[in-house]
Amino acid sequence: MGVSRRDMLTGAIAIGATAMVPSAAPARVRNNDGIERWGMFELELAGPARGNPIDDVTFAATFTCDGDRLTIPGFHDGDGVYRVRFSPPRIGVWQWHTHSNVEALDARTGSFRCTPPGPDNHGPVRVTEDGYHFAYADGTPFRQIGTTSYSWALQSDALCAETLATLSKAPFNKIRMCLLPPVAEVAPIAANPFVKTGPGPRDWDPTRPDPAYFRRFEQWIERLGALGIEADVILYTPYDQARGFADMRRADDERYLRYVAARFGAYRNVWWSMANEYDGVKSKSMADWDHLFQTLQAADPHDRLRSIHQRNVYYDYRKPWITHASIQNGSAVLNDARAQPHRNFAQKAVIFDEVMYEGDSSKRWGQLTGEEMVERFWWGLIAGTYVGHSETYQRHSWLGEGGKMIGSSVSRLAFLRRILETAPVPGIEPIETWYEFHLGGKPFDYYLRYFGDARPTEWPLILPGRAEDPKNRFRADVIDTWNMTITPVEGTFTMAQRDHYTHHDPSRPTIALPGKPWIAVRLTRV
Amino acid sequence: MGVSRRDMLTGAIAIGATAMVPSAAPARVRNNDGIERWGMFELELAGPARGNPIDDVTFAATFTCDGDRLTIPGFHDGDGVYRVRFSPPRIGVWQWHTHSNVEALDARTGSFRCTPPGPDNHGPVRVTEDGYHFAYADGTPFRQIGTTSYSWALQSDALCAETLATLSKAPFNKIRMCLLPPVAEVAPIAANPFVKTGPGPRDWDPTRPDPAYFRRFEQWIERLGALGIEADVILYTPYDQARGFADMRRADDERYLRYVAARFGAYRNVWWSMANEYDGVKSKSMADWDHLFQTLQAADPHDRLRSIHQRNVYYDYRKPWITHASIQNGSAVLNDARAQPHRNFAQKAVIFDEVMYEGDSSKRWGQLTGEEMVERFWWGLIAGTYVGHSETYQRHSWLGEGGKMIGSSVSRLAFLRRILETAPVPGIEPIETWYEFHLGGKPFDYYLRYFGDARPTEWPLILPGRAEDPKNRFRADVIDTWNMTITPVEGTFTMAQRDHYTHHDPSRPTIALPGKPWIAVRLTRV
């Protein structure tokens, strides 16, 4: 047995971990350093390898630190090796003890010291208190700029390495990725999450996940984490009807979810996406999905973000196990007044994870120009929502296999991300979408006005505001979201009451604009 | 005691009602005719008038007809008169017997014959099986064209008569109306739903609803029914904070809802709107509203339609006691792609009951032109949703008191209603809103293309359709929704495959349009 230190995201050295091994089992301590807050502590014990260790062996560890107490399920990593992975939420000395129905795994105890996080470790992403945005656990805003590459993590090591290199230079801080092989036509290297029992596509044993498959997958989670990228792990898809990974029986689904939660849940950059296009899975009812969420939530004391992505029928995002809405809609982020009601219905943070893709696909959902892809991010932004990118060109599909990106939107999304670095916390709020202001921001403090594909030559600078509201002074920047320029407007604008509902500067009622598409104006309070 | 026949909506004569009165109480049979299906049977019994008859006396009657069995709560109509009102859902002989904790009201029995409905009696409105539209119980489509007049029913008899006369010539088949006085500034004739206990605004006894107040209100429900108009009865509002009708204690709320359900529920044209702008009521939580819905649902065996209207926070329309979404949104019906996601979130029929109003109000929510009011109905229509009208001019507010309508949208809504008379059943469905077709209808059978305020001079007639879909022949009409003209286009259009996703007629790829705003095109399969 042993205690291993997984400093997956920072590489920082920590000290102070100890392992007290009261039993007579062989003891081995792989690392005795401290564990960073939100890092990963891993306990490894030897147990039975025969029979079906998943169904026959219970194994968990309880971790305590002052008043805090968390019981973390363990998992069998093959060959009689059992692990518990724990990401400590607070600094201090954590005591642990194990529980098992097998003597070799039961009643072990120990402790480790949890140390302050390193400079690049901000903790897991959570929904902010207002309910509509995201932040890391240390309070750093997380401004979601997502992408999707369904099968990248199942490709060859060389292609995976290329994908990671691409991501290291890209603006994306979240990637949607399938855990199980989604489509038969993209033949992945990693094709068998469960032990094969014969040559046919349905010849696999749902009671025996193959540790090697999941071990390979989690190395990519870890590598993404090192790049500061959240791994939005998709647990089911409707696509591979030949192999039928989405058609397991309930007990098999439960085992799968518990295994995945125990194995991956301690990685602080993991999000759970229960499914892609859940309503395409014909073998599962809404009640089944609800049950799987409850199973996952119970199996994941790290309480990672949870959502589900649809084809046609929006899931009910108000259900308590949903942390944020993950929506596919091809036209919702073409106007802030289209996107904003999704917040109102969900009463939660909204990510439009699929809004059609940049590309030259023969499929109409893969034919956006780069301009159209970027436009969707800006409309979503000023509606107080978040958007996801992908691209699928005929000569190369990032959406399918990862590798390189060849589209033109990526650099513009990087430009958008830089703009957001100075935007208000916790995020951009929609502003009076009923009245077509097309403004997002923080009222009386910071505004983004977006014009989409219109080509205005001036903007009447009219802001919502009543007599009792503050009348502030602003400086303005004209932003060309496509050509990536920020042009300050000389001087400032001092707001005064214009009518019952609006403010303006009577001495400077308009801002001149270049008559080009994809323009935004930023107003910052002086 | 007696059995009275209320033939509220048809005036048809029915025969066969009998009353068997086994007890020694004075018996009186007011009508012994039959009762139409979906009409109203009313049983009247004498009981105790002292104490608080609402809280101290239980009273209900069970009605049976072959296998059907319904227990209908009764109510005290003042002065010791107790009534049970029952709207029989099927034809046949209905047996009834009463239950009470008071001997004079208990164990009475009788029967009546339920006869076929008259020609104008289509039964109550229900949501259609597909979930997104409405129909009367006999299957006749109900295509909602709503209006709102909050306090009309609380005005003088003369003004109420004027309102009814106005409605008799108007296109509206549903009206939203407050049961309790909503606003102090509009001094109604009917101001005291509960018995006053002193001169102050809060001096009223929530345990004692005034029967005269509710009796007056129900005559307007009945008169609306005779006009074929559904009464969308608003049970709470946040507006009158002086009198605080929305701030009752839970037991008082329950009593009020039970009283109203027993009293009004047998009118087949009643809908329940739990509140207008529920989220403006500061004394009630979401859990309170949920509880009130459950109370109402249990108290209303007639199971009338139930919804609730919001100011900012959309109620969760997926909750099981909600039959349809009732939404306030000032910009959702300015485009079908804005409106359609509301269906997807609610997974139920959607009525945009408040979309701002036609008028010249100083308030910006009452400044729509007639054109803008009508435009909202058309966008809502092709999104598969329904819309509500009202108008509030400075010289006369239909919205507040009823009376006359002076706006310009009404005649255009009548024109719209006539168009809907030949539209598909159960209703207009949205068609591929992701791809900006701006079409509603029934695929391959009937289409409405709406252009809003655009002024196209031609329309490339391109319809969604794949190779395997039927390629039909259509005739076309150009509809001027404002000038109320329907201009047939000569000849027909025979669809052929255009590309992977669309059909067109290669010999006639476009339809000429007049270059004016508010144009629609109707395609009808030949």
Q: How are strands sequenced across the largest beta sheet of chain A?
A: 19-18-17-14-13-23-21-20
End-to-end gap of chain A: 60 Å
Architecture (CATH level 2) name of the largest domain in chain A: Alpha-Beta Barrel
The major β-sheet of chain A equals: 8 strands, parallel
**What is the number of helical segments of chain A per DSSP (H or I, 4+ residues)?**
9
- Mean pLDDT of chain A comes to 93
CATH class of the largest domain in chain A: Alpha Beta
Main interface: chain pair and counts = A-B, 28 and 28 residues
CATH topology of the largest domain in chain A: TIM Barrel
CATH superfamily of the largest domain in chain A: Glycosidases
Q: Which strand-content bin applies to the residues of chain A?
A: 25-35%
Helix amount of chain A: 10-25%
User: Oligomeric status of the shown chains?
Assistant: homodimer
Number of domains of chain A: 3
- Poorly predicted residue ranges of chain A: 1-30
Coarse structural class of chain A? alpha/beta
From the alpha-carbon coordinates, what is the Rg of chain A to the nearest angstrom? 25 Å
Report the strand count of chain A. 36
Inertia-based shape of chain A: globular
